[in-house]
Amino acid sequence: MTHWLTHMVEVATLDATSASKDDVAAIGRQVGYEWLNIYRYNGDYESDQAVDSRIDGITAAVAAGDFLVYQYPSLNGPRFETRFIDRMKMRGANVVLFVHDVEILRGSNVADGFDEYNYLNKADALIVHNPVMAKVLHDRGVTVPMIPLYLFDALDDFPLSDNAPSRQLVFAGNLAKSNYLADWAYRSITVFGAAGGSLWEKLTANPQVDFRGALYREQLNAAIGGDGIGLVWDVNTPEGNYADYARFNNPYKLSFYLGHGMPVIIPQEAAAAKFVTANKLGFALSSLADIDPLLADLADADLAAVTANARHIAALLRVGYFTKRALLRAEQTVKFGPLKLPE
């Protein structure tokens, strides 16, 4: 039996679109998975036969009984996703979907005729973000076994800071959906991300914002260092697609900050808030307006404690602990069923 894992080949981006998939692929290779390289392309005008031929070329070495982890979505479109898993199941492979996003949960436009819940049920098991996502998918008709990831790993070998804990706020992410930062009126914050037009003008003019612009991953690692508190707050509204999705997903920026040994501030209604608070990795707040009172009243010893915890979990994220754990549990579930351990 060969272990396979899909590896997306695409141009590097300034956001986290490819970062988490690249890390999963690299971690899989560390534990014996072979890569199936999938190139990002526009197949809108490709015939079904051509799509099948493309998939057969990618998976020529996959045999019956092999164990295949498919990173979903590939962003090559629903037809590619569907025909890929259908052909692998026809070939007799065991297929696990490593779910990076559920398009219907985040309000994305889903192609006509594509039933995403039915698609997920084609797999032998799913690796999903967290127990909250598993529950909502189950409630909406997904019946296959689901393994919670809990955190995306964040591979890197940059040195962790050993400086004294800092109260400096840091944000790195998609400013198109976090444009509330243009009107930031709380304690000063350092902001990384792409912005243009009026958003750029407002960010650069705001005295409370130290706007550093968009950087590629290695540059961003060096610029952020590991001092401060990471803000895991996409939108400053309780409504809308992004706010709804935060109730189900684990944002990659959470792992990015923690991978730098930085504690975080996260909305208390976010799915990942339970993990953050249970492991004392930061603070879950009901409003951005709570940040200034929190940091003003926070004892140095309490800040030191959450910073130490963040630096400890960074060591796990940097070696792929959560991905390796999920891959092992997925294989155990598919091959042997739930393991019963006597007390």
Q: Mind explaining what this structure looks like?
A:
There is one protein chain. With 343 residues, this protein is of the alpha/beta class. The chain folds into 2 domains: 3-153 and 320-336, Glycogen Phosphorylase B (Rossmann fold), CATH 3.40.50.2000; 169-317, Glycogen Phosphorylase B (Rossmann fold, 3-Layer(aba) Sandwich). The chain has 13 helices and 12 strands. The protein has helices at residues 19-30, 48-58, 78-90, 116-120, 131-139, 197-205, 217-224, 241-246, 252-259, 273-278, 291-297, 300-317, 321-336, and strands spanning 3-9, 34-39, 67-72, 94-99, 125-128, 146-148, 169-172, 189-192, 209-213, 229-231, 264-267, 282-285. A 6-stranded parallel beta sheet has the order 2-1-3-4-5-6, with helices on both faces. Strands 9-8-7-10-11-12 form a 6-stranded parallel beta sheet. Helix 1 (19-30) links the parallel strand 1 and strand 2 (34-39). Helix 2 (48-58) crosses helix 3 (78-90). The longest helix is centred in the C-terminal third of the chain and has 18 residues, at 300-317. The radius of gyration is 21 Å and the shape is globular.
Total of helices: 13
Q: Please summarize the sheet with the most strands.
A: 6 strands, parallel
CATH domain topology of the largest domain: Rossmann fold
Question: Between the first and last Cα atoms, what is the distance in angstroms?
Answer: 32 Å
